[in-house]
Design a protein that fits this description.
By secondary structure, the protein is α/β, with parallel strands linked by helices. The protein folds into 2 domains: 7-55, 2-Layer Sandwich (Signal recognition particle alu RNA binding heterodimer, srp9/1); 66-121, 2,3-Dihydroxybiphenyl 1,2-Dioxygenase, domain 1, CATH 3.10.180.10. Helices cover 21% and strands 40% of the residues. The chain contains 2 helices and 8 strands. It has a 4-stranded mixed β-sheet, with helices on one face. Strands 5-8-7-6 form a 4-stranded mixed β-sheet, covered by helices on one side. A hairpin with a 5-residue loop joins strand 3 and strand 4. The radius of gyration is 15 Å and the shape is globular. The mean pLDDT is 93.
């Protein structure tokens, strides 16, 4: 049996900003937006990323170490994405270096969500 993770719901403080971040920098496209703010985006591989507004009483702080990641297999794509994100003046947490057996770098998405991009050929 081949089971793949294909959906995640991230509660965020600013759904439109986060949706724009994933659309602009990672090619996600919005496929649904509800009046309550919940928005569903699809990645090129069909991964469904749901962004939902924070519920009352939630401060939106992520636990230490929480992050989301993208694994790229092509070295040229990895370096091109790095350059594009650098040119976009995004906040980098860590530049290219070895981590967890791969070349990686980390940026912050709106609301402080840590995003890791790894080269895993």
């Amino acid at each position: 049996m081949n089971i793949a993770l294909n959906h995640v719901d991230l509660p965020v403080a600013d759904v439109p900003a986060m949706a724009g971040f994933f659309a602009t920098h990672f090619g996600f496209r919005p496929v649904m937006h509800r009046p309550d703010g919940l928005t569903v985006l699809l990645g090129a591989d069909g991964f469904a990323l749901t962004l939902s507004p924070l519920v009352d009483g939630c401060d939106g702080n992520w636990p230490a170490g929480f992050h989301i990641g993208f694994n790229l297999r092509d070295e040229d794509d990895f370096h091109a994405l790095h350059a594009r994100l650098r040119d976009g003046a995004l906040p980098f947490v860590r530049d290219i270096g070895r981590l967890g057996g791969a070349e990686t770098f980390q940026i912050l998405a709106p609301g402080g969500v840590l995003v890791e991009i790894a080269l895993r050929p």
